[in-house]
Amino acid sequence: xxxxxxxxxxxxxxxxxxGRKQLLAITAALIMVIGCLAACGNAGNGExxxxxxxxxxxxxxxxxxxxxTSMQNLVDALSEAFMEEHEGVTVTPQYVGSSAGIxxxxxxxxxxxxxxxxxxxxEKESGIVENIVAIDxxxxxxxxxxxxxxxxxxxxxxxxxxxxxxxxxLGGSDMPIIVIGREAGSGTRSAFEELLGIEDACVxxxxxxxxxxxxxxxxxxxxxxxxxxxxxxxxxxxxxxLEGVAATAENIKAGTYFLSRPFVxxxxxxxxxxxxxxRAWFDFVLGEEGQKIAANAGLLTVD
Length: 303
Prior knowledge:
41% helix, disordered N terminus, 10-stranded mixed beta sheet
């Protein structure tokens, strides 16, 4: 082989080696770029970052609400909707009565104390703030066979203080009146007695510790009368009219139905002083969606 042919072949081999080096360098660069893009994408999707989508900027944590059994329907619905919107959040409600809820938030064992009554001056003086989130009506419920379906304020007062003891005194059947109510410390009981001006003067046959128990007892006991949150009343009992006015949200809003009270979510200090999670909860509850949930529960909104 001639010398010039040997040189020509050597040049070709050297060119091929150079091409392979360039290809390897380009491939390595592409791998680095793809890796960087993947890492940036993961960070933006909340993997090690702040989160996105329903997490709303990475809102996480646990929120505890303790208190009124009358507020259960509302709080359960709000909790479910809030957790759907913020997947990193767990809302834990406990229903143990209004006074117990206020005590819990006062001691710092709950983020929010649910109360179905206004706060007392002594509670406000201790730094507890009354945040009204909805207005509820208190319905007077009767057993389904009762023929007396309308009561005056005075008649209702006389029944609960023991002055009227038989339905025949009100034009009904000759049957003893079985007076049913809530336990001491219940927000519903406090509101009911305060609205009638009969605090500590009621004569109860049964004092029950939750709303559902009152309705069930009245439904199953001939001649009985009880009271419960308007949104908890079902077809198992009669909801009495008062002074000729039916217990409806429309009548409460119009001010013609006199048994109504606030639903309060109490905090230790102003809402602005609470954690980011608690502030986000109140933004939701008092916002359009939260107030729509309240309205669907048969409550009056505060907007």
